[in-house]
Amino acid sequence: MINQHDIIETVKMIGEHHLDVRTITMGISLLDCVSPSKEETAKRVYEKVVRNANDLVATGEKIAKMYGIPIVNKRVSVTPVSLVGSSSGGYLEIARALDKAAKEIGIDFIGGYSALVQKGATKQENDFLDTIPEALATTEKVCSSVNLASTRAGINMDVCGKVGRLIKETAYLTRDRESIGCAKFVAFANAVEDNPFMAGAFHGVGEADKVINVGVSGPGVVKTALERIGDADLGTVCETIKKTAFKVTRVGQLVAQKASEMLNANFGIVDLSLAPTPVVGDSVAHILEEIGLEQVGACGTTACLALLNDAVKKGGIMASSHVGGLSGAFIPVSEDIGMINAVNSGALSLNKLEAMTAVCSVGLDMIAIPGDTSAEVISALIADEAAIGVVNNKTTAVRVIPAYGKKVGDSVEFGGLLGQAPIMDISTVSPARFINRGGRIAAPVHANKN
Amino acid sequence: MRAYITVMGKDKVGIIAAVANTLSDCKINIEEINQTILQGTFTMIMAVDTKESSLSIEEINTELTKCGSALGVEIAIRHEDIFNAMHQI
Question: Which residues in chain B are closer than 8 Å to A68, comparing Cβ atoms?
Answer without folding.
Answer: 61, 76-78, 82
